[in-house]
Specification:
about 250 residues; Serine Threonine Protein Phosphatase 5, Tetratricopeptide repeat; 15 helices
Length: about 250
């Protein structure tokens, strides 16, 4: 299509979001340059429909531990002039992914406490499953008393979504300290979700954790915080597992 050929920001915007969520870091970095060049050539015009893609790029830089680049892309989100209520859904999801990666589970959970039903349907829409899945994981990592309730309630809502379902399985396994169930959450790899597959392994222990750590490094991402790792199977997770941070990303 001529329009997409002329406007790289339009052409790459949806792909940027998909690649960011599944962990195609190299593709995001390459496409984001085309996106930014095209937007700047257009005169950096008001384009709120492109803000989701810019926020996804910021998330990837957060996972890479590059706070400077993340801040630059968050400034681009602001430059696209999206109203705060319009970006609340994807912002909460992207922020939670970064915070969980860096061991800040309590901060991640704090941003996910609102019930999706209380949010504008136009805001939460496609992000509902990610929102519920990430809330369940943050609750498990902080041993929140609502964790099991949130996991159970989310199962019916995300039924048929293999990625969200795998998130819930992982959250319950984290809560139970069940390494075998963690390793059984193979749907991430089958779905091509490279980041979440690597994160699952890194959250375990022993050789599996080493494989996950290597996979995250191969993706070009910063190491996950040690405090976010699964305690060996059969040992309860203490309530202090959260927010012991090696590197804290800069968040607005």
């Amino acid at each position: 299509m001529p329009l997409l050929a002329e406007r790289g920001d339009f052409a790459t915007s949806r792909l940027l979001v998909a690649d960011a969520l599944i962990g195609n870091v190299d593709e995001v970095l390459a496409s984001s340059r085309r996106f930014l060049d095209a937007w700047e050539r257009s005169g950096s015009r008001h384009a709120p429909h492109l803000a989701m893609a810019a926020a996804a790029v910021a998330m990837v830089h957060g996972l890479r531990g590059d706070d400077g680049a993340r801040a630059e892309w968050l400034a681009i989100v602001d430059g696209l002039e999206t109203a705060p209520e319009q970006k609340a859904g994807y912002n909460r999801v992207f922020d939670a992914i970064v915070l969980l990666h860096h061991g800040l589970a309590e901060r991640a959970l704090a941003g996910l406490l609102a019930e999706p039903e209380e949010m504008d349907e136009r805001v939460v829409w496609v992000w509902r499953h990610w929102y519920l899945a990430l809330r369940a994981e943050a609750a498990a990592l902080t041993v929140n008393p609502e964790a099991r309730h949130w996991i159970a309630a989310a199962r019916a809502i995300v039924a048929g979504n293999p990625i969200a379902g795998a998130h819930l399985e992982r959250a319950e396994a984290l809560l139970d300290g069940d390494r075998d169930r963690m390793l059984a959450a193979a749907a991430f790899r089958a779905a091509g979700c490279r980041y979440q597959w690597a994160r699952t392994l890194a959250l375990t222990d022993g050789d599996h954790a080493a494989t996950g750590v290597t996979a995250l490094a191969d993706l070009g991402l910063a190491p996950m915080t040690e405090a976010a790792r699964l305690i060996p199977a059969g040992v309860p997770i203490p309530p202090t597992v959260s927010d012991r941070v090696v590197h804290e990303p800069s968040l607005p």
